[in-house]
């Protein structure tokens, strides 16, 4: 992998990680167009590692909130009077809500990095999950703010987050849609999606780091891709929070469906290969 490829993948990761359009799907497409081997373990690992740049962007953007929640959670472990506060409970929500994707990700690693890394999967997942996003916008009551979050909400959203292990679904698309379906408003659902992304994607990046170190992908390229991902993701996070405050996530559906159909045409015509 050269530095140009590293920069392009960093931009793609930063732009798409938190938008409901599937970062894994876009990275798979970009890798194919850049001439990289999509199913190469080192390439797959690289995409997971540069996600840590995007996660760092979330940590920096929400640092005040994250520090307050972490402090309340830690204090609540030893002081009972803190345990009923929202911040202490939010700490537990993030921890418990992140467990399902961690467990499923480990158990299904070979499937996720193997057969599912196909542009056919990406194409159909982009189209099919778009229907879920539209349904969530139409059926979700959107009457509950962040302070009304419960452990049940965190578990339900965390379970559905596992579906995003299928390239093309989109982790943010899955979690925000589910948040809307349990009654949260768009901003609350989006903030929960951001917080749940931190343990899941950071752990995945650390786990895959071993497959990048010592591979043909250089350390310099990995650092560059991660830094670019951080910068672009920070801007994307700020924009998305403003966007969802007044717009439906259904606005992303035409793009998702159009890209899915374009992929099907390109694959059927032999212009690109699935893996």
Report on this model:
The model has no long low-confidence stretch (mean pLDDT 91). This protein has helices at residues 3-16, 23-33, 41-61, 63-76, 86-107, 109-113, 119-139, 151-161, 171-181, 186-212, 219-244, 253-269. It has one domain (3-269). It is mainly alpha-helical and 275 residues long. Helix 1 crosses helix 3 (41-61).
Element layout with pairings:
Blueprint: H1 3-16, H2 23-33, H3 41-61, H4 63-76, H5 86-107, H6 109-113, H7 119-139, H8 151-161, H9 171-181, H10 186-212, H11 219-244, H12 253-269
CA-CA gap between termini: 17 Å
Mean pLDDT: 91
Q: Write down the domain tally.
A: 1
Quaternary state reads single chain
Q: Report the uncertain regions.
A: none
Strand element count: 0
Helix fraction bin: over 70%
What's the helix count? 12
Q: H/E series, N to C?
A: HHHHHHHHHHHH
Work out the strand percent.
Answer: under 5%
Q: How would you characterize the largest beta sheet?
A: none
Q: How large is the radius of gyration?
A: 18 Å
Envelope shape: globular
Give me the secondary-structure category.
mainly alpha
Keywords:
single chain, about 280 residues, mainly alpha, 12 helices, about 0% strand
């Amino acid at each position: 992998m050269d530095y140009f490829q590293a920069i392009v993948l960093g931009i793609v990761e930063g732009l798409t990680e938190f938008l409901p359009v599937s970062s894994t799907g876009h990275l798979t497409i970009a890798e194919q167009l850049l001439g990289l081997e999509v199913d190469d373990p080192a390439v797959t690992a690289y995409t997971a590692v540069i996600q840590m740049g995007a996660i760092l962007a979330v940590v920096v953007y929400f640092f005040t909130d994250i520090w307050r929640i972490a402090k309340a959670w830690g204090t609540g472990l030893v002081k009972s009077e803190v345990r009923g506060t929202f911040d202490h409970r939010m700490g537990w929500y993030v921890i418990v809500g992140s467990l399902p994707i961690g467990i499923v990700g480990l158990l299904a690693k070979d499937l996720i990095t193997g057969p599912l890394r196909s542009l056919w999967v990406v194409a159909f997942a982009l189209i099919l999950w778009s229907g879920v996003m539209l349904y969530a916008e139409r059926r979700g009551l959107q009457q509950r703010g962040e302070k009304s979050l419960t452990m049940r909400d965190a578990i339900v959203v965390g379970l559905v987050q596992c579906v995003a292990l299928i390239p093309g679904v989109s982790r943010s698309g899955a979690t925000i849609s589910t948040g809307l379906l349990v009654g949260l408003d768009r901003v609350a659902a989006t903030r929960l999606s951001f917080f749940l992304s931190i343990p899941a994607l950071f752990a995945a990046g650390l786990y895959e780091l071993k497959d990048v170190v010592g591979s043909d992908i250089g350390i310099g390229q990995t650092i560059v891709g991660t830094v670019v991902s951080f910068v672009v993701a920070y801007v994307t996070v700020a924009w998305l929070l403003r966007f969802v405050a007044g717009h439906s996530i259904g606005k992303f559906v035409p793009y998702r469906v159009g890209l899915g159909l374009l992929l099907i045409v390109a694959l059927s015509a032999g212009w690109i290969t699935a893996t």
